[in-house]
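Pilot study result, target chain (89 residues):
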Amino acid sequence: MIGFIVAGLVIGALARLIKPGKQNLGLLATLLLGLVGSVIGGLVANLLGTGDIFELNILGFIVAVVAAVALIGVAEGLAGRNRSRSRTH
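Predicted structure:
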């Protein structure tokens, strides 16, 4: 369990480094997006037959980082949309 949390934090941090621009995400948001990315990476690796969902392998790790980068983009888009709505009301 602790390894899963640490892996999620590492994946989230790597995704933030890869994603250009400044992200307004705290440590908890980075951790959660990294955890979701690592689950997605594990699922893809499992579907491709390269390992178990909770087993760290290179393909799952790469997919996890890519998924976390995409999730950061989605989170930024949602946060930006919510900020623009609150300014118009």
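One observation from the pilot: The radius of gyration is 14 Å. A full batch analysis is planned for the follow-on phase.
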